[in-house]
Predict the structure.
Amino acid sequence: MVIAQTVKIRMSFLIFLNLLMGIACIWALSRMAPAVQNIIHKNERSLDICEKMFVLLIKVTNNKDESQNKIFDFEKLLELASKNITEENEEELIDQIKVYYKYALNGDIKALEKTVEKISSLSEINRNAINAADKVSKKFAVAGSWFVVFWASGMFFLGMHYKRMLIKNLIHPLEEISAVLNANLIGDNFRRCSGHESSDDINDIYSKINLILDKKSAGLESESDR
């Protein structure tokens, strides 16, 4: 029957759309969350390196005798920073720090000011990157929420449409057929199936049932005439 095939196709399509939404949400979350967390983690590492650089500069400023010992520690931090570049201008700032840091650690005030300035800029770049990643994450979360809302609304209205079609083309015809057959079983030989808005398949079934009932009624009348 065409109506049975139509119901199967529509239900399968509805199930497919819901499954597609679930897969899309899982894929988006599985890709977005780790990417944002990775960005934030790398930028936090750069901020930690900048803080340690500031600590070394403060220690050397308070104790000039430690300058030679701290140069090696500072170079290790610069190497870590060079391997953790994630934003534009970071490499340039690190190169500029490399120019001034030895003089700064040896007590050159101007070099110290330049080093502090470049480290502050490096820290600010990574702090801004963390804030930007956080904003992007929130935007994706909001966009994803609205996507789910609109998708769920669409599925709701589509489901309601399919429900109306199912009631019209299947539930009501079955109820009509059941009522007609029950009426005939209790002796109402004139009750017949009717439904002007039904589909061609249902009307065809109605016609066949009515034809059977007509033949049954004709047979009963013939017997009564005898």
Remarks:
- The chain has one domain: 2-161.
- The helical segments are 2-62, 67-82, 90-105, 109-185, 200-225.
- Residues 2-161 form one domain.
